Amino acid sequence: MTSEVVAEDGGFVNPAGRDQLLRTDPAVFGEFPGALGITTTELGDRHGCFELTVRPEFRSHFGIQHGGVVAALIDHSLGSVLLPHVEPGTWPATLEFKMNFLAPVREGVVRATATILARRRSVAVVRIDVENAGRAVAAAQGTVSFQSARGSSHSGVGGPGATP
After folding, report:
1. What domains can be seen in the chain, in order of their start residue?
2. What is the pLDDT of the chain when averaged over all its residues?
3. Domain Thioesterase spans what residues (predicted)?
């Protein structure tokens, strides 16, 4: 018997992996989010909050944070908010997202709040709102497909091979 329970929306909730998610564990996420300094600050049933602090090497020659860093935060948030809802042995793969930049970021903490809008057996739609210093700086919506981890070293959150 595994630690998952089937949620009302048909998704899988995996409470065994929640600690790994809150620690932004490289065993789950790989090294990229850590290199950017992305942290998980909150993870609820249908939402999550993810942050990074602007660093000098993230700024363009205009003194604003490079848009690619915001896009990476959005992509990370898009998949990570779904991790408690996937079966061990699967992972959420971003199919697409559409992003709008609303204001430049120069310093401080950038916070992405991801909300699951719809979750089906094989796909989900997530909205991500990004803010900095109390103002909206980007908005995105994306679609994720749930993929089997067969043939890869990733075995899902809380699944075989996952670290405690």
Report:
1. 5-148 (3.10.129.10)
2. 80
3. 62-138
